[in-house]
Write a structure and sequence with these properties.
The protein has two domains: 195 residues, no CATH class; 208 residues, no CATH class. The chain is 37% helix and 21% strand. The longest helix has 25 residues.
Length: 447
């Protein structure tokens, strides 16, 4: 029998795909929920993950949507995919989507665990295979964090019409955890709930090789120490870029941490192709970097500021006071907001009280007026004959020497964000302009 030549996956008939498997022109294994592989092995992790995607509808829908994979067809899930006539490399995972007997879409997966990072040479090889087989999607998964799934931990040239995605294991775990909360996105089938729970139990166990973001890059420490020593910073300093990328990763990690605790997906500040350059310039100019956590149905997003020179991290929420009242009433309003926080959760509020500041945004003023919470009565005199447009509740926490620590910084900032949310954010609300009422005219009564 004359063997056909494998030239594509997408566009290939499923019966021809099966024939290529039979002739070993395609080598692969079906993904198993309980693989007969060593616990902690990357292939075991790949098999369990792909099987979970296969078996849990809501999880599958979320993953497919994230990578824009066709959902209108029957999907098949494989591990250890190899195409010997094209390349001897073995790709960790493969999903094909079959519509009317033809493969209409496909995606490759490269998975890493433990301290194993995504390898540039390996990804370049897989992109070449993708191009040869007309597979338009390649997904990498590791313990490495990125600001957005369209970014990659490695700098590679991606061929035209191919999309390279990256997910951290923490992100994939968080997506699963959110489905177990009682919300609109929850898993409907009870058996699938159990499958999701068992898979997460494995993923969250240290034997799986999955871990969260536990360490800033070395550039963070070097930058903190350089600023402390008042060294001149240059755009070409590689350690500054490394520090900024670490900040992006930690910002994402905080968003995922809050997501798991709240049961809603929290987003970090969006990044553009110019973000890195802008943030490096900001560090050089102002010795600080900013971030943001975007949380649905809260009074405000959480703004974050890390100051390298003072070694302080600040977090804040912005509130609009009743603008139909005078300044004194607006100040009374913000005081009552904080009294409500204390009444609702005194223990949490007391942890923060000495570090809290109130910042008044003054109309037409170049700078806000900021006072300690303990001295808030001073705002009445400081804002006399001025128009307060808004308030910020700010917490300033000094990290000291731990600011420069690649591990302790993460521990401290994640404690801070949880404490700030628990003590302040979840209890404050912003004023809403009342709905305007119709003014009834005398002649309306004669209608």
């Amino acid at each position: 029998m004359i063997q056909k030549k494998l030239t594509k996956l997408v566009g290939l008939k499923k019966e021809d795909f099966d024939l290529f498997v039979k002739t070993k022109q395609i080598k692969l294994q079906p993904a198993r929920l309980i693989p007969t592989l060593k616990t902690g092995d990357e292939m075991a992790l790949t098999s369990i993950f792909l099987s979970t995607v296969r078996l849990v509808k809501e999880y599958r829908d979320g993953i497919f949507k994230s990578i824009k994979l066709n959902r209108a067809g029957k999907a098949y899930y494989y591990t250890e995919a190899c195409f010997p006539d094209i390349n001897q490399s073995r790709i960790d995972g493969l999903i094909i989507v079959v519509t009317k007997g033809v493969i209409s879409d496909a995606v490759f997966f490269e998975m890493k665990n433990k301290n194993n990072g995504i390898d540039k040479t390996q990804i370049e090889s897989y992109l070449s295979i993708s191009k040869s087989l007309k597979v338009t999607k390649l997904v990498t998964v590791s313990n490495e964090f990125v600001a957005d799934s369209s970014h990659s931990p490695v700098n590679v040239k991606v061929p035209r019409n191919i999309f390279l995605y990256h997910f951290s294991w923490t992100y994939l775990i968080t997506k699963g955890r959110l489905l177990l909360f009682k919300n609109d996105l929850k898993i409907q089938d009870n058996d699938q709930v159990e499958i999701m729970s068992e898979s997460l139990h494995y993923f969250e166990n240290s034997v799986s090789g999955i871990c969260g973001y536990i360490q800033m890059k070395a550039g963070w420490k070097e930058l903190a120490e350089s600023i402390r020593a008042q060294k001149t910073l240059k755009m070409s300093d590689e350690y500054i870029e490394e520090a900024v990328l670490s900040w992006y990763e930690e910002e994402k990690d905080m968003a995922l941490l809050l997501s798991r605790r709240l049961g809603v997906l929290v987003k970090s500040s969006p990044k553009t192709k110019d973000s890195l350059k802008k943030d490096i310039k900001k560090i050089i100019k102002d010795n600080c970097i900013t971030g943001e956590l975007i949380i649905k149905n809260t009074a405000s997003d959480i703004k974050i500021l890390a100051e390298f020179e003072r070694r302080i991290v600040s977090m804040s929420v912005k509130l609009t006071p009743p603008l139909n009242k005078g300044n004194k009433a607006r100040i009374t309003w913000i005081v009552k907001q904080l009294e409500n926080c204390k009444r609702k959760n005194e223990a949490s509020f007391m942890k923060l009280e000495k570090e809290l500041f109130i910042e008044a945004n003054i109309k037409y003023a170049q700078a806000n007026i900021k006072v300690k919470l303990s001295e808030i009565e001073k705002l009445i005199d400081l804002t006399k004959d001025k128009d307060i447009q808004g308030f910020k509740i700010v917490i300033n926490r000094g990290f000291g020497a731990s600011f420069a620590s690649v591990k302790k910084f993460i521990v401290l900032i994640e404690i801070l964000v949880l404490e700030f949310y628990e003590g302040i954010v979840q209890y404050v609300s912003t004023w809403v302009q009342p709905t305007p009422k119709l003014i009834q005219k005398d002649n309306d009564l004669n209608l």
